[in-house]
Write the structure tokens for this entry.
Amino acid sequence: MLYNFLAPLADDFGPLNLFRYITFRTGGAIMTALIISFIFGPSIISWLKLQQGGASNIREDVPEGHLKKAGTPTMGGFLILLAISFSTLLWADLGNGYVWIVLLVTMGFGMIGFADDYMKLTGRGSKGLQGRTKLILEFAVAALAAYWVASITPDPLATGLTIPFLKNVLIDLGWVFLTFAVFVMVGSSNAVNLTDGLDGLAIVPVMIAAACFGFIAYLVGHSVYSSYLQIHHLPGTAELSVFCGALVGASLGFLWFNAPPAMVFMGDTGSLAVGGALGAISVVTKHELVLAIIGGLFVLETVSVIVQVASFKLTGKRVFAMAPLHHHFEKKGWAESTIVIRFWIIASILALIGLATLKLR
């Protein structure tokens, strides 16, 4: 909004030229989201506690140590959505279609998660939305976003798939692109949801991935840098750096309250939203496969669940003591803080490998 109002006035008043720089507005988005989190966080947490009424929101299928967290309010992802949406609308170019696509996915998935959390919170549905209903709604939002991406992206990138480590390679998926894009967004969303099981475990890898994709979006949208790195140039995507900045700021702000011992949990409201956002950004920037590297921690958590379920159904035996993977290490006796910090380290290493694909071609 500030860009649309103030940037046109830069020719008459020089200092306003700052609003033409994506890097400046990205920094503004980070700080705005962070400040919003600090200001509204305590009030939102108090409201959530009041709504929950001290009821336990701890699932039965988790290690015994989680019982001490009973009563901690969930649905804290609402704070993340508030910070992201306000910061993005304030600092981004609202004439950019890609910004609206990513906002659609973020808010759409967030509302699905909100409905699920609210039903659990108020007792209107002890288990929240049915799994099938959630997936149908997620697929609907993702399908709309995928079609929108394909319709505003110039050919041949509209339905193309780029391959990490290979330059000038673009595979035209045709209409299969829509299915692939939907799978990326829904898969990313639910992968983050599975990872969100310990205090601070999911939000830091999300923040790392958001920072990486803010950098990638800027490079892809910049003709000079994309030419130098021999990656496919896509005008307009650089504006997503502002959104990624808002996501980084919102994640930092949420971590303030989610750091062990957590004052609030993200819930499906936050995990589905931020996971979907990362998936949508990867689809827009044509770095879907790089997301699997940068977000490799989320992939590992998801694969651990798939392997556990498949093994038990086929052989009657479990591969892990408990799935997802972080619960396995809890069962092995690792302290929660040890698991969280080591998983952060893994996420950082995978992010560096993912960024290396930009140059190693």
Observations:
- DSSP finds 14 helices and two strands in the chain.
- Strands lie at 160-162, 170-172.
- The mean pLDDT is 91.
